[in-house]
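So, can you check?
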Amino acid sequence: MSARHWRPKRAQWGLAVAAAVAALVWARVMHSRNAAEGGRAPSAVAVHAAPARRMDVPVYLDGLGTVQAFYTANITARIDGELRSTDFVEGQMVKKGELLAQIDPRPSQAALEGAIALKAKDRAQLADAQDVLKQYQQLAPQNLVSKQSLDAQRALVQQFEAQIQADQAAIDSARTQLAYTRITSPISGRTGMRMIDPGNIVHATGVNPIVVVTQVQPISVIFTLPERYLTEVRRALGEGVVHVTAIARDGRGEQLDRGTVALIDNQIDQTTGTMRVKAAFPNKKNSLWPGQFVAVRVLLRTEKDVVAVPSNALQRGPDGLFAYVIMPDSTVEVRPLNIDEEANGVSGVSVVDTGLRAGERVVTSNQLRLSPGAHVLVIPPAGRSENSESKTAAKRPS
């Protein structure tokens, strides 16, 4: 065979071998893909889960309120005079009876001394009149003095006795006026800004106080609740102490103080359909300030030994609330739930009236990727195991 005929045949043979190899590789790839698609299980959705547990769940009522001083005292002058000094620092805590300001005492001191002198004068006149009366009474039996003179002297003695009583009243009044020159705090509390400076003339009829003292330990919060809860709140008050928590309205939900309900106002606001409630707080840390707006949470009652799940497990569908329940084969089932709305959400858990049994696990995250029968892979939160998460959920309401 010549070289010219051998070269075309060798080229055709090479192309045939290459085609055969490509066909074999393609067949193996398709076989592997079909085998993988035919034997692979559907992918599982990663979720967090928590068990339904029996626990005590608190029932709260939420409202908005304003902090008010327990007592407020406008410190004003009770006599006219020059304000000699102010003996307080603005914003300081003062005790009941502590000196706050002094008015020039000299006019009042002089009036007191004058009243004392007048009483001494009248007392001397009374003593003289009594001696004369005693002499008249000794001479009357011998008819050495007329009955008219005796009666006149007796009346004069009585007149001086009455005058001495009036003098004593004047002395008491002058002493009171002198005491008014020392202005003391009628309550324990915190002073505000000084309104009148020393050197000014103050008047008993003046409208501007020298300073305002507010009692902030304890302190009050006035808040409102819907009138539909009137019966329940009154029942709770009748059964014992109703606890209240004041919460900051700064978005962080910080608890400012814990107190108790003092009373319910004696009428309902018909324009808003709300009732006013007053609560008292010890305010030991001065976290509550007069005029401050706060959120208020009232512990109405505690549901004992109920089935509860984390509130983020609840989903709302066209037929109401439901939750995804994890079955033994790691698939999920849609379970309609009947929830106690009053005991829902505040403490992070919701009370389930019907639909779940204690111990059943519910999905608490990634529910949007689920459908009935979907496979799930339960993963613990970062840095925590599933068991520790469940224990924490159980302790959260308390």
